User: Fold these one by one.
Assistant:
Number 1:
Amino acid sequence: MNYDLKTINEYTNKINIMEVCGTHTVAISKFGFRSAFNKNINLISGPGCPVCVTPQYYIDYIYDLSLNKEIIICTYGDMIRVPGRTPDRTLEGARALGANVKMVYSIMDSLNIAVENPDKKIVFLAVGFETTTAHTAVAIKEAEAGNIKNFYVLSMHKLVEPVMRTLLENKELQIHGFLCPGHVAAILGQDGFMFLNEYKSIGVIAGFEAQDIINAVGTIIDMKKNGETGVKNCYSRLVSKEGNKVALNLINEVFHAETDYWRGIGPIKDSSLKLKDKYKKYDIERIYPVDRSHVNNSTGCQCGEVLIGKIKPDQCRLFKKVCSPENPVGPCMVSSEGSCGAYYKYF
C-alpha cells in the first residue's frame, strides 16, 4: 500500500520510530522527513552507523597499530578521521607521521595489496553489520585458498539483533516501532527480525527511496493504531522471507559471536563477530592484543546519547559549536552515515 504525507500527518498520538540503519538516517534527513511529518511522529536515529558504535579503544588501537612500520592499514574512508581518546589520534594524523594507511573501496583491494607487499602485514579494518560481514568472510576464504599469509583482519563487525534487543529492554527509550535496515534485511531476511514478536514490538523493513520510507512509516502507524505487533516487509523487491542463505552460511562458517562494547551503550552479549579458530591466523588481535581498558570518551562529545536516541544531535552541547565536519569531535560527525553529520548537512 502506498501512503502519502497528508494521510500520515493525520495521526495525532505520540509515536517514537527508530531507524537502525545509517543509510536510513541520511535519507530521512536528506528528504526532510523530520520536519515534513507532524510533531507527534518522532523519528529517532539509533545505533545504525557501524563506525559510530565502534568503541574508542579500537580507534586508539588502530592508531598505534598504524605506526608499526611492518604494517599497512587498509580501510574504508569513514575510519580515516575518527578520533581516539585525543583529537590527534586519527589515521589521518598517523599518516602525517609516516604511517602507511591506504583507503580501499573493497576488502578485495586489501588482498591485492597483500600480494603486492609480501614483506608487510596488511590489516583490513572490518567494520559493519551483517551486510559487510559477508564480504569479509569471502575475503578470508580467498586468502585461505590463495595461501596469502600476510593478510589480517581486525574484525569490528556487529550484529543487529542483540543491539535492537538491548534498545527494547531500555524502557526509558519507549520505542514503539523500528524502521528495519533494508541492506541488513537482504542478508537476514524478514525472518531475521521475528524476535521483535517476543517484545510485542513493531518492525517494518524499509527501502531507501522517499516513497519507501513514507510507506514504512505509514505501515508502522497503522499497525500501532490497530494494536498489531510483529514484522512486515515493505522492501520485498530486494528482501525475501528467508534472506540470503549463501551469505548467512559463509558468516556462520567464518565467524562466531562474542560480547563486546558498543560506544554509548556498553557491553552487549554475543553482539560482535570474531574469527573462528579455523581462521584465527588472519586475526591481527592474535598477534597484537587490544587493550580494552579505555572505553570512555572524555572530550564532552555526547555521541553515545545520540546513538541510543536519548538526545537529538542538535541537543549535544558541542554540535555546531566545537564539533563540525571540519573539526569532528566524535564519530557521529565524521562518518558519512553518522546522525550528527546528517543533521549538520540537512537539518
Number 2:
Amino acid sequence: MSISTRARRVLPMLAAVLVGAPGCGAGGTSGKPDWEQTPAPAAPEAPPTAAGPATPTLPGPGSLPDIPSGPGQSEEVECVTARAEAELVREPVDIIIALDNSGSMDDEARAVESNINGSFAAILEQSGVDYRVILVSEHRERDAQDTAVCITAPLSTLSTCPAEQPGPGARFFHYSTSIGSGNSFDVLLETFGGEREDDFGLAPLGWSEWLRPGAKKVFLEFTDDDANTSANEFLASLTALSPEDFGPAPNELHFAWHSIVGLAERAVSADPYAPVDPIEEEECAGNVFNAGTTYQELSRLTGGLRFPICEFDGYDAVFRRIAEDVAESRGVACEFAIPEPPGGRVLDLGKVAASYQPGAGGPPRDLGRVEEPARCGADAFLVDAAGVRLCPEACAALKADPGGVVDVLFTCQEALLR
C-alpha cells in the first residue's frame, strides 16, 4: 500500500471521514490504513432506522453536505478528514481443490483433470504469483476409476496417467481420498489433521502440513450436489481447527471459497456470480441434483465466485478467471481505526455513518449500523472502541469490487469543561 499524508485544521463542526478501498479478512489481507488528511464538515442527523441508532446520511465519496447555520447550531470547532487508498498486491496463495468423486461426476472429473494439467497451472505460472495447489480427491490409479483424477506435469512429477500413486511436485500436493455426494465439508475437516488418512500415506499429519504460514487460502469446490451441513457450521469448525490459517472466528475470515456447482448458467456462461449477487436456485442445463445453494452461501460469505458445473467443456475459462482472481488481491482491510479528534473535542461514536460507492459507478449505497455480529448483513457495519469494521458479507462483497470505495463519517462535539 502506498500512502501519502498531509494535515491541516479548518471549518466548523468536527467531523472525520475514513475513506478506503475495501478488502476482507476471508481470503484478503488485514492492516491499519494510513491517512491523507483534508478538511470536511459534518453531516446533519437523519431519523433512526431499523439498522441501528440515528446516523448521518452520507453523500457520495469525496464530498459532504453543507452544514446549516443559525440558532441551535454548535459552536464552531476544528475538523479533520482522513483518507486511505490501496493498491492491488500479489500475495502467496495456497489453493485447496475439493472434487466430488461420486458416480455422476465422470465428465466433470475428466474436465477438471485436463484443465488443472493445462490452463490452470500455466496461468498461475505466468502470473508470477507464489502459488501452491493442494488437491483433495481420489487419485486415479487405473482407467476404470471414472471419477478419480490424476495430475501430470507441469504441476506433479508424473509424466503419464493413470499412475500407481500421486507425484507431488514443488507446487502440487495430492491428498488422495474419496469425496462423496454432499460430504465435501466433512472430508475437508477430517483430512485437515490426518484424522482420515490419505490412500498413500503421503501426509500423516493431514493436508494441513502443506499449508504455508501467511499465504492466502482459496478453496475450489466441484460438485453436482449440495452440502449435508450448513455453511455456518463448516465455518465454525474450520476456523476452530486453524484460526491462523482461516480466521480467528466465522465473522473474521482469512480465505475465499469458489463454488463450481449446479447453479444456472448466466447469459455468458464464463461470467461468474459475484458475492453481491443473490443465491441462484435454478439449476444449470445438465445432469445435476441441485443448485448447490449451501456452497453458494459460503462463496458469498467469503468473497468467492460461483460458476455452473454443467459447462465442463468451458472449465478453461473458469480456471482462468479464478487464477486471475487469486493472482491479484486488494491489499486493504475492512477495519478502520477511529481518528484522534482535535484538542478539546470528543468523537460521538453513537453517530457513525457509512456508505459504499460501487466501482462501476452509480449512486452510493448507505450501510446500516448493527450493534452485534449476530445481526450482520451484506450492507452493515459495527462500531466499538477499537474502530469501525464492516460485516463479513459486506467485506466480501466490497473486496470483489476493484474500484469500490467506503466512506465512514464520524461526528464529534466539544468536550465538557469540568
Number 3:
Amino acid sequence: MTHPNSTLSAQLGGDPIRPAGPPPWPLPNPRIEEAVQRALRDGSWGLYHGPHVTQLEAQLAAYHNVTYAITCASGTLAVEAALQALGLEPASQVAMAAYDYESNFLTIHHVGAQPVLFNLAPDHVYADLSSIADSPQISALLISHLHGDLAPMAAIRDIADARGIPIIEDAAQAPGAIVDGKRAGAWGDIGILSFGGSKPLCAGRGGAILTSSPRLHQRIRLYLSRGVQQWGALSELQAIALLPQLETLDAANAHRWSHVQSLDAAVREILGITPLTTRVDDRPSFYKRGFWYDADAFGLSRERFVQAMRAEGIALDAGFRALHVGRSSRRFRAIGSLTQAERAHHEMVILHHPVLLGTASDVQEVADAIAKTYANADRLAC
C-alpha cells in the first residue's frame, strides 16, 4: 500500500525515497579483506619497499598500455609532478578548461605557470580548443575528463601535435574509460589517476602518473625522489587495497554505464534535466554523473533542487565553481568568451557514483526522486 506521504517531497515532510540515504563508499569488498589479511600475516603491508606497489605500477602500466606508471600520494601531487617534468619556464602558459577541478588551477600557479582558460565545447564540460591558434605562447595542455563526459582526445592530440604542445590528461574522474579507442590517461604525454577516498579506485588517498616517455619518466622519478626515498609515496597497504579493484574495474564500469543509460532514459522526459551526452564508440567511467539543470524549466532553483534530492536520500550536488568566477583576472588569462563555462557554473548537477553499482531498483529510485521533486517544485519554491 502506498504511504499517504510517499508523493510529498521529504523536504516538505513526506517520506524519503531512500530513508537510509545513499550507499556508503567504499563498499564492502571481500577480495580486499582477503588481500589485507594475507599482507598482515606475511608482514608485507608495513614494508618501505614491498612487492605490492611495484605490482600495482606494473599492472596500471599494462592496463593503460603505457610503458611506465608511477604511484604517489595524491592526484594533485601527480599533476604537480607532471607539470614539473615538462620543464616549464617561469610564467609558462598552461591551457585548461575554465570549468575544472580547482586544484588543477592552483597547482599550475604552484609551479610558477599561468593558467589560460578556454571556454567549454557547447553542451559539454571539456575545453573548446578551436581558438588555440590565437595563443602561440601556450606551453602545455591540461585536459580533464569530468562527470562522465570524455574529452575527444584524438582531435585534441592532433591539435597538440601540430603545435608541438605536450598534453597532461587528467583521468582522475574517468578510471578505465575508453575514449577514441584508448584508455583515458593513455592519450596524454602524461596521464593522471587519483585514488582518493570517494573515487571508483579507492585507497583513501593516492594517485598515479602514466607515461610512455623515458625522458618524462626519469624527470618524474627525480622530482619525487628525496635520496633513497620517494616523498609523497603510496603505501604498500594502499596498493594492496587497489589491486583487487583494478582487476574488477572494467566490470564495475560496465555496470555503472548500463545503469546510467537506464537513468538517462528515465529522466529524459522531465523538463529541466538533460544528461551529458556520450559519443557512441566511447565507454565512459563515472565518478560523478553530470546533468544540465535548467532551473526555469524545472521550476526550482538549483540550490533547492539539490537540497530536496538530498532529503530524498540521493547523493546529488552542484557541480564545480568555474575557475574565473570570483577570482582576480590577474590570476589567469581568458581566451575569448567563457559563457559555456559560466553555464556549467550555474547549471551543472552531479550524482555520486556508488548508487550506480547497486540494483536496477536503486537507480530507479534516483529517477523517482527527480520526478517527485519535479512534481513538488511549486511548493518547494515557496
